[in-house]
Each structure stands twice: as C-alpha cells, then as structure tokens.
Design a protein that fits this description.
single chain, N-terminal domain of TfIIb, elongated, binds zinc ion
C-alpha cells in the first residue's frame, strides 16, 4: 500500500497541516474523494483529490 501525504486545510487546526491519505478509491469515479487524516489532531476528513485529471495513470 502506498502511503501518501498532502498538505491540506484542516478545519480543526485552522491551518494547513500534513495529512495522511488513508483511503483512495480503487475505481476512478467522477467525484473522486479521498480520506485524509490530519497528523496533528488526528481528524479524518473526506476531500476531493487535488488533481482530478492528472491521476488517471494505473
Ligand atoms: Zn488537524
């Protein structure tokens, strides 16, 4: 399993934090949502992928 990190806005930290991508859908759908977990406060959030068009490589 690939472990990825992205700096995303955390609504609990009220800042951009390093967030671990803990879930990536295997089937590329139109609305591709990912589950992130903030490494600062541990909050899990669902967000859309940052680059919807550049991730179609499998
Ligand atoms: Zn946080």
């Amino acid at each position: 399993m690939d472990q990825d990190f992205e700096y995303r806005w955390c609504k609990y930290c009220l800042a951009k934090t390093k967030q671990k991508i803990i879930f990536v859908p295997k089937i590329p759908t139109y609305k591709r949502r990912r589950q992130y977990k903030c490494t600062v406060c541990g909050t899990e959030t669902w967000l859309l992928g940052r680059r919807p068009s550049a991730e179609s490589v499998y």
